[in-house]
Design a protein that fits this description.
By secondary structure, the chain is mainly alpha-helical. The chain has one domain. Helix content is 65%, strand content 8%. A hairpin with a 5-residue loop joins strand 1 and strand 2. The longest helix is centred in the first third of the chain and has 27 residues.
Length: 142
């Protein structure tokens, strides 16, 4: 009896959550953005021989922003993810570029904390910003 009660309470909560997630995703990731995203992913797959995941794309953006093509330590790889994330979130005003240090690493200041969303919404939000980055840098394949 307790299981039925919990299930009855859980189902409306899940429906509300899924509806919210769907609305957030559809607002942030329209059809044109989706098409550009797939062009980016397909272009990178063609160039590198395998389909990149979000971490791979962030890594490439970090390398591009750093402007150095070399082997990186594990700590430097984490910094590259950070650079890429800051760059992307700077489009929305969450971070602001401050300076580049003597070793060529860009530094950003946090302006405002991004609102935490569910993982699906975060993924699509980052995809939208990746598309903006590729557009800004004229990197979307035809």
């Amino acid at each position: 009896m307790m299981k039925k009660f919990l299930l009855k309470k859980l189902i409306p909560t899940l429906k509300t959550f899924l509806a919210y997630s769907h609305n957030m995703v559809s607002e942030e990731f329209n059809e044109l953005t989706k098409l550009k995203w797939y062009k980016i992913v397909f272009g990178l797959k063609t160039q590198f021989g395998k389909k990149p995941d979000m971490n791979g794309i962030l890594f490439l953006i970090g390398i591009r922003e750093l402007g150095q093509n070399r082997e990186f330590t594990k700590a430097e790889k984490m910094d590259l993810f950070h650079i890429a994330t800051c760059k992307l979130l700077s489009y929305e005003g969450f971070f602001k570029y401050e300076y580049t240090d003597e070793e060529g690493w860009p530094h950003y200041d946090l302006i405002t904390q991004p609102e935490y969303k569910d993982l699906l919404s975060q993924e699509y939000y980052l995809r939208k910003l990746v598309v903006k980055y590729f557009e800004e840098n004229d990197l979307i394949p035809e």
